[in-house]
Structures are given as C-alpha cells and as structure tokens.
Design a protein that fits this description.
This protein has one helix and three strands; from the N terminus they run ββαβ. It is an alpha+beta fold. It has one domain.
Length: 59
C-alpha cells in the first residue's frame, strides 16, 4: 500500500490518497497530474500557478 500526495508549487499538499494498492499508484498519479492539478491551478491562476509545476509524492 502507498500514500500518493499531490503537492502544489509552494510545497503545500493539495490532496492525499492513502492506502493505494501498489498496482493502482500509476493510475492515481496520472489522475492527479492530468485532472486535479489543472483544476487546482486554474483556481489559483491569478497567483501564477501552473499545473506543470505540481509534483506527486509516493510513499
């Protein structure tokens, strides 16, 4: 099991998925980068946020 966390450009956590089965980590990571990050960045676009600056941490 893994914990998958989307991190915004200033280092703050946007969302975390806990107890992700190992075989689903890639799917969750793709969803966070391709869907959640752009949505979050658009909400903060006035402050210069861009989805390409987000990272995913897997532990």
């Amino acid at each position: 099991m893994a914990t998958v966390t989307l991190i915004e450009p200033n280092g703050y956590t946007v969302t975390t998925h806990r107890d992700v089965p190992t075989d689903q980590v890639d799917t969750i990571t793709t969803h966070l980068i391709e869907t959640v990050a752009p949505e979050h960045a658009s909400q903060w676009a006035d402050f210069g946020y861009n989805a390409r600056d987000y990272t995913v941490r897997v532990r």
